[in-house]
Design brief:
Number of helices: 4
Structural class: mainly alpha
Distance between the termini: 83 Å
Largest sheet: none
Radius of gyration: 31 Å
Strand content: under 5%
Helix content: over 70%
Length: 89
Amino acid sequence: MINLIKKNLLNIISFFLVIFFLILCLFYYNSNTFIKNIEKKRESYLIYLNSYVEKLDKISSSSDFKKRIDNDEFFKKIYKQKQYWELIK
């Protein structure tokens, strides 16, 4: 009997908590304050993102690009693979 009362009480409390949470979500996420906060956060994130992008090291010319990325090893591997398959044939 006592366990049944405890269980019912727990069910009632959990029901009210869920209802409270749903009402809070419904009214808060549709409120003007929430929308304003989101807009401020998005603006601040865009400012942060733009400042981060400006700090990145930029490649100025194609010769610069060739200095930074060396694909010789990659192409050597491809060439070796082709030779290997030709030998198998």
